[in-house]
Amino acid sequence: MTSVDAVSASTPAAGSVDRAYAGFGIRLAAYLIDMIILMIITGIALVVVMLLTLVFMRNEFALETGLAVSNYVGSLIALVYLIYFWGRKGATPGKMLLKLRVARRDTNSGGAGIGEGRAFLRVVGYAVNGFLFFLPFLIILANRERRGLHDFLAGTVVVQER
């Protein structure tokens, strides 16, 4: 191997991005932090919706209606939370706390978000993971870039901030 070959072998190819991909454990920790935050927010919303329902609907369907509405409100809050933070900030509060960032796979987007469209695709991937008993999250363990199903759908990676 010549010295030119040695230099070119250690130099990243043009257009490639040098990144430290976040592993399964730290991503799981960030996910759990976000779920705790969302449970607190949706818990507060649940109480407010239930109180409003009981005040304005004084019949036998008030409790069932309040529960149904609060489920929709909770889902909407989670959807907005994830799309906003991934799309605009590049990280949810849980990821920020653990110094992780969601980035486009094909570019180094710095601290910018991935855009609302890609964030929505990640949410769709999360939903699919949930329907499949969260087993597709294990894909993160099996590839070099530590990408999950939701990352493949959205064209994203999760990286550690340096």
Mind explaining what this structure looks like?
The chain is mainly α and 162 residues long. It is 59% helix and 6% strand. It has six helices and two strands; from the N terminus they run ααααβααβ. The protein has helices at residues 3-10, 24-56, 62-89, 93-97, 116-131, 149-154; strands at residues 100-104, 156-160. A two-stranded antiparallel ribbon has the order 1-2. Helix 2 runs antiparallel to helix 3 (62-89) and helix 3 (62-89) crosses helix 5 (116-131). The longest helix is centred in the first third of the chain and has 33 residues, at 24-56. The relative contact order is 0.15. Residues 1-16 have low confidence and may be disordered.
Write the layout of secondary structure elements.
Elements: H1 3-10, H2 24-56, H3 62-89, H4 93-97, E1 100-104, H5 116-131, H6 149-154, E2 156-160
Antiparallel strand pairs: 1-2
Keywords:
162 residues; mainly alpha; two-stranded antiparallel ribbon; 2 strands; 59% helix; 6% strand
Domain count: 1
Strand content: 5-15%
Uncertain residue ranges: 1-16
Helical fraction: 55-70%
The 3D shape can be described as: elongated
Major pleated sheet: 2 strands, antiparallel
Q: How many β strands by DSSP? A: 2
Summed over residues and divided by their number, the pLDDT gives a mean of 88
Rg, alpha carbons:
20 Å
Largest sheet strand order: 1-2
- How far apart are the termini? 33 Å
- The SSE order reads HHHHEHHE
Number of helices: 6
- Secondary-structure-based class equals mainly alpha
